[in-house]
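Quarterly update from the structural biology core.
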Amino acid sequence: MISHHSTAAEPEPILLTIEGHLIGRIESLTDSSDPARIIRSYYELMPQEQRDTVEIHRERLALLLPAYIVAFTAADSAELAQVVSDIETQWAAILRIHAQQFTREVQQILIAAYGEVYSLIFAD
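Predicted structure, tokenized:
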């Protein structure tokens, strides 16, 4: 384990992710698997507390979708900016949990699955 101490003159330290305790790829799931199934399968492997927390953020994300559609359709830039900010807040919380629980490979798999489930708001 590498320890890094910083002083006030040094830039912020870079945090290393040690993947020894993280959940890895489920071999039985493929890129063609249903994205909702992919998400559910990985989340079932997390401790209950993290599962509950991520589900709260997923529910909030799902509740923001209708507001996003209305603001986007109405071309209401102020409302759209607020909804996008709220979406980004929920998404950031989900990504933090992913980083704590899953390997980088699985994080990318989950990002792709979310992109398919929420294609309207996660479009490139």
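DSSP finds four helices and no strands in the chain.
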